[in-house]
Design brief:
heterotrimer; A mainly alpha; B alpha/beta; C mainly alpha; A: mainly alpha; two-stranded antiparallel sheet; globular; C: mainly alpha; two-stranded antiparallel ribbon; disordered N terminus
């Protein structure tokens, strides 16, 4: 067994998986409460990456930032998370809320409209050229290693950051009043409303949290992979959706697990299978189908209770 | 009220549709031979991926064509106008968008010749439309060898880039004779341009006794770390003939991150751009351009110091069409057929590609050669 | 779970499906007055073939009104999208299955036809053989894909079919490198280069080789499929499908063979997709891997849902909007007319009474001239440039809208402010909305003239398409011609 290849693939898979997990969380939380597939989520993530870039350049750029590099990084995350959170709330308020009583499939098209709108607004305002985060200049590119495990600073930042965000999210959902309201609403929206929970507010909070996570993922993407562009949300959205379904859509721990599973699978498929990166999606999907055949409601999803 | 609004909306759509319907009513057979009064402003069509995943390269082609037109218009009494149509290369509806754009140009009675489309499959998909409209079209980036050899578009299609066959020969000769490398890893980006070139280079290297490994990665992907982990450390060269230079830059940066910067990286003409150039030591194949050429300097000045060469062949394509239109318009009138004939007769002694431009019967540049460049201190310098 | 009434939206109307709603159904129908009401009533009374004729007969005259290019761009592609939408409508609209691999069946049809009639293998089968063969093969493939999904419910069917769609694209993109067992190396799909030069269909020696012939051929196919679907919809199976969509559990209790019906719908939709794909591929003269990816799937879903899931006329209307709106916006001149036309008509249609409308329009015009005059006097640079709009619009616009010499930065900020302003206006009501609307409309014109119009070939038309989709779905959540359904789960 070639351990160094295995570790390389694992680090790469964990990094990618953390990003997928953060995106999948947004999908899953919204789905849990609204039964809505928010196809514009990937584009919120793209906007997050751009907000991070503008924050970076507003603070003096990657080579000579006005304040310390780590403070800049934190501020980039904050700006992207708050910006995307607000964007998510606005999208929900204007594109989805009026459709709340419509057939379940209708908001899909509204979401598609939002996606077109965001993607091409970004093209209009920011241009078609890719933008570079230059994270090497900002937080260093040196590859470090522990034993045979090699990693770069942005990778460890992504994995740790994602874990921290997920812990915070879990705490919010488990410990706070709003979190309790969220759980109640996702369990039974009508009963929750009868118990005096302001369902509209809970939904807004859900969108804020989900979109903020996507924003953070956008900045992480920029730091790890360097290049951001207007079309990057499309493929990320698809992957996030897959991860959410595989983990059990609607389940928060499921989304985290699903993201990591998809990331690691992609990585191992690329590394170990013949023509791995060409057929990567096929290999990953094949495993997913196998999982679904055994557990139709996803890894950690609850089997839906049929009420009559 | 909502219904009234919807009805009104439908009425506007119908009205506008009728408006466009009346805009041009030439019969199809006459399309190529219809006389167009040249007037003071002559019109060139442009098919490029202005939106969609390949918008970054489409944007460059638009910039270079606009640059040609603005330069020309400043120094000439007659003016050119450009009608741009979006093809969304690699975008949602596939070739359908390119086809619709080509139809729009075909139906625009003012358009005399077309620059584009960008992709080889787009060329194949739009051929019957543009041919049906009698339009000559010159691509600045479609390199698939069969486009000029299968005979379906002779006399209509031309290109200002040499075909894959030419490029692959220069590349493999360089790898075998100059670098004398024995272990090469080839990764395509799953698009027609890249797989075609990879196939040819792979075959030629194998014939010369080089050990090659082949892989592919989707153009949409940004994470290459797993793929890089898989590349054996004793590999001497990774060949990535991709279309999007920023993705190649990300690939190079991730190689560095993975501690594999000792492995050389080589790209194709698609990567001859500042993003890839910024990686020190990488190779790329491109035309023998002269960075000291006046046009290139002027472009760089007009665009804040940018020197993105990817769109340069589209500049030459516009130059060829511009010249052909001028010659066809000598008598004040021109037909698309006349412009086509003039394109075939093109003879430009010196272009910014570093080559004279004359076309073969199939539509290729005569004697098109490729130079091999290496990036030194963030600037490409010719080494072969 | 029963959906909650949202208090913000029309509090005076009962929610769809409640007893009050059912009780007031007659009133609502009677309330439809005016021109649209009249049309709706006439439409309701038309026999099915009359409805078909209303659509097909005027369409049949299009080739005499339009140039060949516009016929392709507007009419032919609309028909193609509508045909694809009809097949998807069976799967999604009738049977209620979320099929995300639908486009792969269209692609299978196109590639299948390409293999039977292109230089790739030197085959040239007659279309009367090839097209039905391809359609049947696709239906069988649909049956095979549908089989394992029988166990899966709801969104998990979506992921299986999404996998199938992805697998199809990856397969056709790489099939030239695969060595098949028994056959050895066969370049089945041309790989990334696709299949090109697919022959036009040839029916008993009659070749469909011009745009007009294609148009009538596709129109005939459309009418045929529409008729077939109408009968299918009215049949036992059709009623069972709808029962399945409304409530699978209840349907099963009523001894409807749920699984068999699902499979049937899936295979039927796939067969239609294959049929359309074969014609579509031959019209495009080629089949390329990227053509049959998620993007086209989303387009066709938009067609079906926008028109109203389950409604046949809705599919046609959805296809018209989804295809024609972005095509109209391709030219600057059209785009300008459309932009100002829609704004003006919206104002004319929505602002009442007439007195207020007059004051509003007067105020709007005066506001513009005032701003222009002030800017002209104070900062002449703000009015220095020329308008992009041509024709009769050019003059008035140069006197009314600010046209700065270097508009790039200002217009970018204007765009962002404009979006915020539009969202704000939708939240205001009464006279406040009208007052706020004046500067918003003016800002809209400013951003249009200085930013959006320069990008009509690119981003602008897709931005407007996106905004249109959101606005239309907001205005009619059930789809344009869909009926509001009672949703009890």
């Amino acid at each position: 067994m070639n351990w160094s290849l295995f570790f390389d693939l694992t680090v790469s898979g964990l990094t990618l998986g953390s990003l997928y997990a953060l995106i999948a969380l947004g999908y899953s939380m919204v789905y849990g409460i609204l039964k809505l597939l928010n196809f514009a989520h990937g584009d919120v993530y793209m906007i997050g990456a751009f907000i991070g870039w503008f924050a970076l350049h507003g603070l003096g750029g990657p080579i000579s930032p006005d304040v310390g590099a780590w403070i800049v990084t934190v501020l980039m995350f904050l700006a992207a998370m708050v910006g995307c959170g607000v964007l998510g709330v606005v999208i929900e308020r204007f594109a989805y809320r009026p459709l709340r009583n419509a057939p379940r499939i209708a908001p899909l098209i509204s979401a598609l409209g939002v996606s077109f709108f965001l993607q091409n607004s970004a093209l209009l305002l920011f241009g078609a050229a890719f933008r570079d985060y230059d994270s090497f200049d900002l937080i260093g590119s040196r590859t470090r290693h522990v034993g045979q495990v090699y990693y770069a600073t942005p990778q460890i930042l992504t994995v740790c950051g994602a874990i921290a965000l997920m812990v915070v999210l879990t705490l919010i959902v488990a410990r706070t009043t709003v979190g309790k309201a969220m759980r109640a609403t996702s369990f039974d929206r009508e009963a929750a409303a009868m118990m005096g929970i302001d369902v509209d507010r809970v939904i807004s909070v859900t969108f804020f949290l989900g979109s903020a996570l996507a924003g953070a993922a956008g900045v992480m993407f920029g730091l790890v992979f360097g290049q951001i562009y207007h079309y990057m949300g499309f493929i990320a959205g698809l992957k996030g959706f897959t991860a959410a379904v595989i983990g059990g859509i609607g389940s928060i721990p499921g989304a985290m697990l699903g993201g990591l599973v998809v990331g690691l699978l992609e990585s191992y498929a690329t590394g170990y299978l013949p023509q791995g990166s060409t057929f990567q999606n096929l290999y990953v999907f094949a495993v997913l189908i196998a999982v679904i055949l055994v557990r139709p409601s996803g890894l950690l999803g609850r089997a839906a209770i049929q009420k009559v | 009220m909502k219904k009234v609004f919807l009805a009104l909306l439908a009425a506007v759509l119908a009205f506008a549709a009728a408006g466009t319907g009346g805009a041009s009513t030439q019969s199809p057979k006459a399309a190529g031979s219809a006389l167009i009064t040249c007037g003071k402003t002559r019109t060139i069509g442009l098919l490029a991926p202005i939106t969609g995943p390949a918008a970054s390269i489409g944007g460059l082609q638009v910039k270079w064509v606009d640059f040609y037109v603005s330069r020309y218009n400043r120094t000439h009494k007659t003016k050119f106008a450009v009608v741009k149509e979006d093809t969304q290369l690699g975008g949602p509806n596939g070739n359908a968008e390119a086809l619709k754009g080509a139809q729009a140009l075909k139906g625009n009675g003012k358009v005399l010749g077309v620059v584009g489309p960008a992709g080889s499959n787009e060329v194949k998909g739009t051929t019957s439309t543009l041919k049906g409209g009698g339009l000559g079209f010159i691509s600045g980036s479609a390199t698939n060898t069969t486009l000029t050899t299968d005979g379906t578009r002779t006399g209509y299609f031309f290109r200002t880039v040499p075909p894959d066959a030419q490029q692959s020969k220069s590349v493999s000769r360089f790898i075998v004779n100059n670098l004398k490398f024995k272990r090469v890893y080839i990764i395509d980006d799953q698009e027609a341009y890249s797989t075609g070139l990879s196939d040819e280079v792979e075959a030629q290297l194998k014939a010369a006794g080089v050990t090659t490994t082949r892989d592919g990665v989707s153009q949409q992907q940004s994470d290459f770390s797993a793929l890089i982990a898989k590349i054996p450390r004793d590999t001497q060269l990774v060949y990535i003939p991709w279309q999007l230079a920023p993705k190649a830059q990300a690939f190079g940066q991730q190689m560095r991150q993975a501690g594999k910067s000792s492995i050389r990286l080589m790209g194709s003409d698609g990567l001859f751009a500042p993003e890839f150039e910024s990686l020190s030591g990488v190779y790329a194949s491109f035309f023998p351009v002269q960075p000291t050429d006046g046009t290139i300097k002027a472009y760089s000045q007009a665009h804040g110091g940018d020197t993105d060469f990817f769109g340069a062949p589209s500049y030459v394509a516009a130059q060829v069409i511009g010249g052909a239109i001028d010659r066809a318009c000598k008598d004040g009138k021109a037909t698309r057929a006349e412009v086509r004939k003039q394109i075939a007769k093109t003879n430009i002694k010196k272009t910014l590609l570093g080559l004279p431009v004359r076309f073969t019967k199939g539509g290729d540049i005569r004697g098109g050669v490729f130079g091999i460049y290496q990036s030194k201190n963030g600037k490409f310098a010719r080494i072969a | 779970m029963v959906d909650l009434p949202s208090p913000a939206d029309r509090p005076d109307e009962p929610r769809v499906g409640t007893d009050e709603w059912v009780a007031s159904h007659g009133e609502r129908t009677a309330r439809r007055t005016g021109v649209t009401g009249f049309i709706a009533r006439v439409w309701d009374r038309l026999p099915p073939f009359g409805r078909l004729a209303v659509f097909v007969v005027p369409t049949a005259f299009l080739p005499f009104l339009m140039s060949e290019e516009n016929l392709t761009r507007y009419a032919l592609y609309t028909l193609f999208y509508a045909l694809m939408g009809l097949g998807l409508n069976v799967v999604v609209g009738y049977a209620g299955l979320l099929d995300l691999g639908y486009i792969a069946f269209v692609g299978f049809g196109a590639y299948g036809y390409g293999i039977l009639a292109s230089p790739q293998f030197g085959n040239h089968f007659q279309a009367e053989l090839a097209i039905p063969a391809v359609a049947i093969a696709t239906a069988v493939l649909g049956l095979l894909v549908g089989l394992p999904s029988r166990r899966l419910v709801g969104d998990y069917l979506a992921i299986v079919t999404l996998f199938f769609g992805q697998a199809f694209v990856v397969f056709v993109n790489n099939a030239n490198r695969i060595d098949f067992p028994h056959f050895g190396h066969v370049d089945l799909t041309g790989g990334a280069n696709g299949l090109s030069d697919i022959y036009p269909p040839n029916f008993f020696g009659y070749e469909i080789n011009s745009t007009r012939r294609y148009f009538y051929f596709v129109l005939a196919a459309f009418a045929l499929v529409l008729t077939a679907l109408y009968f299918a919809n009215e049949s036992r199976t059709g009623r069972a499908w709808r029962a399945l969509r409304e409530d699978p559990l209840a349907a099963e209790t009523m001894t409807v063979p749920v699984n068999r019906l699902k499979l049937l719908a899936f295979a039927f939709g796939a067969g239609l997709a294959g049929f359309t794909g074969a014609i579509y591929g031959s019209f495009q003269t080629g089949a390329f891997p990227g053509d049959y990816d998620v993007g086209l799937l989303i387009t066709i879903y938009a067609v079906v849902i926008l028109g109203g899931t389950g409604s046949l006329a809705g599919v046609a209307l959805g296809a018209i909007i989804i295809n024609c709106a972005p095509e109209l916006l391709r030219s600057e001149h059209n785009a300008s007319l459309l932009f100002y036309g829609v704004i003006l008509l919206t104002i004319l249609g929505k602002v009442r009474p007439w007195r207020v409308l007059g004051v509003f329009l007067g105020g709007l015009v005066a506001f513009g001239f005032a701003v222009h005059a002030i800017a002209d006097a104070a900062w002449p640079r703000l009015t220095a440039a020329h308008a992009h709009s041509t024709g009769f619009l050019k003059g008035p616009i140069e006197d009314w809208v600010l046209l700065p010499r270097h508009p790039v930065k200002i217009a970018d900020y204007g765009y962002v402010i404009l979006i915020a302003a539009i969202l704000l206006v939708t939240r205001l009501d009464g006279w406040r909305r009208l007052v706020a609307l004046v500067p918003t409309v003016y800002l809209g014109a400013f951003v249009w003239e200085n930013l959006l119009i320069t990008q009509t070939a690119g981003a602008t038309r897709l931005i407007l398409l996106g905004a249109l989709l959101v606005a239309l779905m907001n205005a009619r959540p059930q789809g344009l011609l869909g009926t509001a359904r009672v949703e009890i789960v």
